[in-house]
Amino acid sequence: MLENVSKHYPLVKFTALDDVSLKIDSGEWVFLVGASGMGKTTLLKLLYREELADEGHVSIGGKDVARMSGSRLRRTMGIIFQTYRLLDKKTAFENIAYGAEVLAMPPVEVRKRTREILELVGLDNKASRLPGELSGGEQQRVAIGRALINRPQLILADEPTGDLDPQNSNRVIEILDTVHREHNVTVLFATHAVDIVDRLQRRVVRLQNGRIVSDTVGGYWSGSEASAQ
Ligand SMILES: Nc1ncnc2c1ncn2[C@@H]1O[C@H](COP(=O)(O)OP(=O)(O)OP(=O)(O)O)[C@@H](O)[C@H]1O
Ligand SMILES: [Mg+2]
Fold first, then answer.
1. For residue 224, what pLDDT is reported?
2. Is residue 182 part of a domain?
């Protein structure tokens, strides 16, 4: 949840978010849309504490993120980026398992979960490939697997289909939708993909110049303010 949040980038004298308030219920799926530079990534960064708000409060599950350690906070959520950011010397299996290993989860449990996730993302036959030996769509599915290993209640996705063709985009959406529906995981999904937003017909929050200009349920252009853009 964000309450009256503003974020300035002082070096460039720019206000990226301006008095933004947004409440997302547990188990919701929310698309964050808006043209390039309107503040989507900044909003997500505030939630995973890559940046701190200059004004207002950012909280998750009632806890103020400013009072939590960034690394501990990030372990409770799954974060997916447009560029996959995998460890290039680790296999698909190892990339997914890594987030659980650093939490000192018993190795038997890590292996069990990793195998389940590889199956979920459709990569059980490519578990021992390095990222460089996988297609972009496959690498993004490894990145999703990595985001799911600690069974997060919240997934933050920043244009996760931005570099993918329609078929791979659909697979990414299917996987995220499965965990959203089956495990009631909250998803905040920043995207430019009009077709995906139109097809899923979910809550759509639109940012324009660092402000929320519409918050509606439906397709990409369903908000009245949005059509004025
Ligand atoms: N570290 C930074 N320092 C200075 N300005 C920044 C920084 N990060 C972002 N900005 C500026 O803040 C504004 C919002 O950026 P942000 O990355 O949140 O946009 P976005 O909506 O995610 O855009 P895109 O769709 O292109 O990813 C932009 O004008 C950007 O130039
Ligand atoms: Mg962005």
1. 53
2. yes
Of 6, 8, 12, the one to substitute when testing ligand 1's pocket (max ligand atoms within 8 A of C-beta) is: 12
Q: Is 54 left (phi over 0), alpha (psi -120 to 50) or beta?
A: alpha
Q: Is the pTM of this model over 0.90?
A: yes
| Position 227 in a domain | no
CB atoms within 10 A of CB 61: 10
Domain of 114, in residue numbers: 86-151
Any idea what the CATH number is for the domain that residue 189 is in?
Answer: 3.40.50.300
Residue ranges, the chain, pLDDT below 50: 226-229
Among left, alpha and beta (phi > 0; psi -120 to 50; other), residue 4 is left
Q: Is the Cβ atom of 13 under 6 angstroms away from ligand 1?
A: no
* pLDDT at residue 223, as a whole number: 63
What is the structure's pLDDT at 225? 52
For the record, the structure tokens of 47 come out as 């939630």
